[in-house]
Amino acid sequence: MNIDDPKLTAFALDELDEPEKSTIAREIAQSPEAQRVVDETRELARALKSEFAAELNQKAKPPLSLSDIRDDPWFWGIGRPLAIAAVLAIAAIIAGIAISPLGKKSEVAYSPVNLPAEKSADVKAEVTPEFHEELEATAPATSAIAKNESAAVDAYRRDETKSLALPPAAPMPPVSIAQSGIAAGRAKSAIGGFARAAKMAPAQDFGSNRYGDIRQPSGEFNTAAYDHIFENPFLEAKSNPLSTFSIDVDTASYSNIRRFVNEGSLPPKDAVRVEEMINYFTYDYAQPADGKPFAIHVDLASCPWEESHRLVRIGLKGKEIATDKRGPSNLVFLLDVSGSMTPPERLPLVKQAMRLLVEKLTENDRVAIVVYAGASGLALPSTPGNEKEKILTALESLEPGGSTNGAEGIQLAYKTAQDNFIKGGVNRVILSTDGDFNVGVTNQGDLIRLIEDKAKSGVFLSVLGVGTDNLKDSTMQKLADKGNGNYAYLDSLDEARKVLVQQMNGTLVTIAKDVKIQVEFNPEKVASYRLIGYEKRMLRKEDFNNDKINAGEIGAGHTVTALYEVVPVGGKVNPAASVPPVDPLKYQANNSKKTSQSDVATASSEMLTVKLRYKKPDGDKSELIEKPVIDSNAAFASTSPDFKFAAAVAEFGMLLRDSEHKGNGTFGSILEWAQEGKGSDANGYRAGFIELVRKAQALKKS
Amino acid sequence: MTESQQNVEELLRRFEVPLLQYATRITGNSERARDVVQEAFIKFQRNGAVAPAKTATWLFTVCRNGALNVCRKEKRMMYLDEEIIESRPDEQPMPFERIEQREASGFLMKILATLPPRQQEVLQLKFQNDLSYQEIAEITKTTANSVGVLIHTALKTLRERYAQSAREFLPFEPRTT
After folding, report:
1. How far is B51 from chain A (nearest CA, A)?
2. C-beta atoms of A470 and B96 within 8 A
3. Is the overall model pTM greater than 0.80, yes or no?
4. Contact assignment for A44 to B159 by CB distance below 8 Å
5. Is the ipTM here above 0.90?
6. Which of these, A590, A593, A610, A576, lies nearest to A524 by C-alpha position?
7. How close B66 gets to chain A, by Cα (Å)?
């Protein structure tokens, strides 16, 4: 008999009447297969009944007003008829207004969502967005992720074998390394949901086996998703003279790491993004003097964790804009109010953070609040910044509840921002969430395309991540990246103050977009080099001059720092920095001495040239800045405090990642460099770093 | 205390929590669910003349209508739009985040939460409230036959996912080499 017959299920659940029941029973008797299905169904029904029963017995429910009524004799005697009568009377008077008889709670008035007509199309949209296609190029197996969880698991396994098969420092082009890294990470984040299996096998060491980078603090469910990071390898300067990447002003990784350490555990490796740690701190680079939006500074010295290597620091400093010179701002707060945002360090923290920001606004600014949960809506239409009370009241009345439809909220937020667009001003959506986009049309590829599309309208995006167990770190980072934005992680009100008040203009005012850096190394001086961090920001060398390629933004007063570890020609090469040799090319005239141009280059005393391209915030044609660099053989001991501090942060990141490139550095030497590099430390961030290193050191020992 | 008050009190004791769970699953919000259940009982009190055998069906039906009204009011279109309910893609990540489910419910409930809302609803009516296909059909305004198909499909999916998860994650052999 057909075992996929609803009648079989009905039989198992005793829902059939005679004579059907007997008929089916006879058929089942003939088929062991059917008998098995019936048994399984009954087994499952029993399990479901007990789980559902457990749901009813959940403790710690807030007392029901209904139960109160029941236990209150007064109410049963007099109060209740009165209440009902009152309700009926009111209802009769105000016909048509729905009221809850005993409800006291004021509700946020959600106004209807006016979604563009494409919404229903979105719902049915096929699940193969470009984003997946892009991944397919390097990891075909992972394209099926969104379609099927089991496929994702398989894909992940295949991907895992693939990555294991890579030699430790395989000289692959950085771009494909970064991409397969993303692919592998995505596969893992897709199975992140299955991490609950920890509950089924509690005795096993979940953290260190196959799931090295999915963390399980205290055995609780954890769906936090971190993309796997393959570190940039050393590359030979002769065969790879160009290194190209997008700048990154995100800082989320550092505050996320700090949260882990403060909670008493070392962060998962893949939560450590070294460039975001370095860029968490501001460095004292001189402001641009030539009317350009930013200045480039390059300095270099011996590499503290590998004496024979050179450490090159490239620093960008965005033009500062005085607070009173900031243009009028049109801000839309897009707040996740889903149930998962309930804990104090989530929605309540976000509300506090927003309050800080609102305090700073003036009558020239406008604020709207869009919330999203099971449904999304406009909680506050665009309101002038001096109507603080109105804004704060709306903010205050937000309550978490329901599940999350991020996509719908994002659409509405961008629409609101566009409707109130201030030409020449700051137009920005500030998204705050624990990162869950789990209901409705959402799949990551669609979402990213949506954001990318909206970013073209001149509305920029800031992402403020909150929460712990569920933080979709990788999604947040990608959204900010594609949405011409920045991503910060709020682990405390102090952090909110840093991001939204102290660095308000940097967060809000974009002074240049699509900022790309390309470094050309002179093979006569440089044997090999390695970019520290920026794994998720690598670009192809062709992308540098291609204005269609999106890259990072820089805000007013922001500093961006990148470090290269360079092996000089003739220098001692440590094993981790050695580049496996590649066979000489057979068909290329590998005889560069013939061209006169390379004569010039080889005669040059320059070690490298930093080239930088950027666009004005509203422009679409890039401008170029170049800066050649000569190595003056400075020693690390004699460099600036900032240089030392940046090196300390980078090495800290590498130790946390247990990087094969960490060299001789220890927590002790990091502390030493950081102390020397502490400088005036007006805000105490560097002291905080030193404290963090000490805690991490203690954790590592224990 | 009159007979009808006693009756209501008894019904409250028996149905209050299941109804709350039911309305919470539809509205996604326990506060709203509380209002909905409250109103249902007040209506019951007023209405009075419900045949005892039909009481459960009556209460669940009224609650469902109330909960759907809340959805309508708050534009929880995900639940209202029939097409979306039926076609909601199954590949969605597990919504572990639903606070109200997180504490007490186990593994199976996590998988359950990945089913389309309509399937979750019928399973809840069937296995939490022990209602028959016919009663469920009356509450959800469909036929007993459709309820049968829904439950069958839901159980099948649950079984598959449960088995798959167990297969993928149970064999954690400590490494011996």
Report:
1. 23
2. yes
3. no
4. yes
5. no
6. A593
7. 11
